[in-house]
Amino acid sequence: MSLARFRRILLALPLFALGCTMGPDYSRPAVPLPAAYKHEGGWRSLPDAAQPQPNAPWWAVYSDPQLDRMMRLVAESNQSVAQAQARYRQAQAQLQVSRADGQVQVEGSSGVQRSGGSGGGGGGRSGGSSIDGTRYEVGTTVSWMPDLWGRVRRQTEADRAAIDSSAADLAAIRLGIQATAAQAYMRIRAIDRYMDLLNQTMEAYARSLALTRNQYAAGLVARADVIQSETQLQSLRTQKSDLQRQRLLEENAIAVLLGGPPAGFGLELTAELPPPPPVPAQLPASLLARRPDVVAAERQVAAANARIGVAETAWYPDITLSAQAGLQEGRFTDLLNAPQFFWSLGPALALTLFDGGRRSAVLEQTRAQYDEQVAAYRETFLTGMREVEDALASLQTLAEKAVQQQRLVELAEENERVVTNRYRAGLVTFLEVSVAQNLTFTSRRTALEIRADRLAASIQLVTALGGGWQPEQ
């Protein structure tokens, strides 16, 4: 074989091998996707092709302008979200680093060398001549390592999957922070509604106290009834202080979520509490697959799969094509005027012959990491299913409980009216009035707590589904 033909074959080898890519091609791991949810109640699963997508912020179902402003501010100013955004930019930069490995590299160099020695006959006599000199040199080296076995392609594939995973992590953090802020906001609204209930009850207790004092002044009841009525009213004043403290703590928590100091944040008092949003009649069970944490885990599996191919390329030789050219001369001024030109061109082949089992260990490590990511993906999916089931079960049972509790409120209010009238007539003691009033107050408070729990469960369901359930219009 002639030297020219050998060179052509050697130069054609990278073009032939560019189509080779080591490692397994990726396929999404199977997960146990249910046809329906256990506690879906009136829900009906739709086929994947009809899967709705949200066309509005998930918190729009609560129709609260203040909540809308707060949710948007959380997405812009929260420091945990800012950290996730920085990690996303890092993942994007890493992709550019990996792409650069497959590009032509150009390096410039310059140097000066001083050399010396001795020469002449006589086997090292003292009269021998000395040899020394200085060499100046500038040059450029162009090199390219063809991606023979797909190492760069697999690494780029892994980096793209890592970018997708980082973007999903960002979405998951944003969703989690917004859900936490929404929960705190709803708790504040529930506290305000509870405060309003407390004020109404205190007014009723104050009227009862005035009635008891009048009855006592008329000699119809004992002093113990007055003390008991005063004690009942005072207990509500104590509860009001606790509510004020809880509200301040919730405001401080929201302020930090908004990325600002607590001193600069506050919510106006309001007795309004948005009703629990209606659960849609139809929703696909496969909607769970869009959860950001599920997407992030699946993309980590894809990245781990690509890294197996990167590890397998270590068993194959690398070829580097390089060319070098430059100028050299004994004096720096001659380097600019009449320099000597030199060049070199040729391929270099590198292959690791023995590494003590390192490549085998790295390959086994990447395969184990892939198995770990698959298990993590499936666990994340199962956790999401559990969270959806929990939220659905809570909504279903709380809706039934709300109906029963409202009936209890009506009975307690009727009982209080009857007992109060009997007390006015002097037929019963204030103890029975106190018991009836406390039952009414407790029943109303429990009904309010159930309503707040239904709101919290709806936010949990929205979060568990990955951010909203509104079908596309």
TrEMBL record:
Alphabetized UniProt keyword annotations: Coiled coil, Lipoprotein, Membrane, Palmitate, Signal, Transmembrane, Transmembrane beta strand
Ranges annotated as biased composition (Gly residues): 114-127
Subcellular location: Cell membrane
Annotated coiled-coil segments of the chain: 226-253, 385-415
Annotated transmembrane regions: none
A Pfam family annotated for this UniProt entry: OEP
Compositional bias of kind Low complexity: 102-113
Lineage, opening ranks: Bacteria, Pseudomonadati, Pseudomonadota, Alphaproteobacteria, Rhodospirillales
UniProt cross-references to InterPro entries, sorted A to Z: MdtP/NodT-like, OMP_efflux
Family the UniProt entry places it in: Belongs to the outer membrane factor (OMF) (TC 1.B.17) family.
Annotated spans, Disordered: 99-132
Molecular-function annotations in GO: efflux transmembrane transporter activity
Protein name: RND transporter
Taxonomic superkingdom: Bacteria
Annotated signal sequence range: 1-17
Membrane topology: Lipid-anchor
